[in-house]
Write a structure and sequence with these properties.
Distance between the termini: 48 Å
Number of strands: 7
Number of helices: 2
CATH class: Alpha Beta
Oligomer: single chain
Strand content: 35-45%
CATH architecture: Alpha-Beta Complex
Radius of gyration: 15 Å
Structural class: alpha+beta
Shape: globular
């Protein structure tokens, strides 16, 4: 019998600038994580509303959605809840104003406190699957590299 009993829908922002993509390093549930900015869809919220809300929450930044980039096209369970099927949606977005957040050059540039987060630019040309924690992000990184690397 299948133990999956719900969906977990996540929405992520792909912010590109000068041949780089913005990524986030986080400390969640006692784990170091590298992923794209974004998060969970809330009940009653549309996908575009979700990514706009997530960018305001994480980046203190309003964004404009340019284009849909990718939606999960294979079965995968959530890394944090094995009873949930994960569906992730990625959008190319642009910031309406210059980024206000601190950009680090150091991986995991924070104290290991739950919820800690830092951001950095990663050159698209040098993206590797192993730069990311989650399987879907790994796949999206390779799509980005094949489409946008110079």
């Amino acid at each position: 019998m299948n133990s999956i009993n719900s969906y977990n829908i996540r929405v992520y922002a792909l912010i590109l600038e000068h041949g780089n993509v913005l990524i986030t390093d986080e400390f969640r549930m006692n784990k170091l994580i590298t992923k794209f900015p974004g998060g969970g869809l809330e009940f009653g919220e549309g996908l575009i509303e979700c990514i706009q809300r997530e960018c305001i929450e994480e980046l203190d930044q309003a964004v404009e959605v340019i284009n849909h980039f990718y939606t999960t096209d294979f079965f995968i369970t959530s890394a944090f809840n094995k009873k949930q099927q994960l569906i992730s949606v990625y959008y190319l977005v642009r910031t309406i104003e210059p980024l206000k957040i601190k950009i680090s050059n150091t991986l995991f540039d924070f104290e290991k406190i739950d919820g800690a987060q830092s951001f950095r630019w990663q050159p698209i040309q040098t993206l590797r699957e192993n730069d990311f924690t989650f399987a879907i992000d790994k796949k999206v990184a390779m799509f980005l590299k094949s489409e946008f690397a110079l």
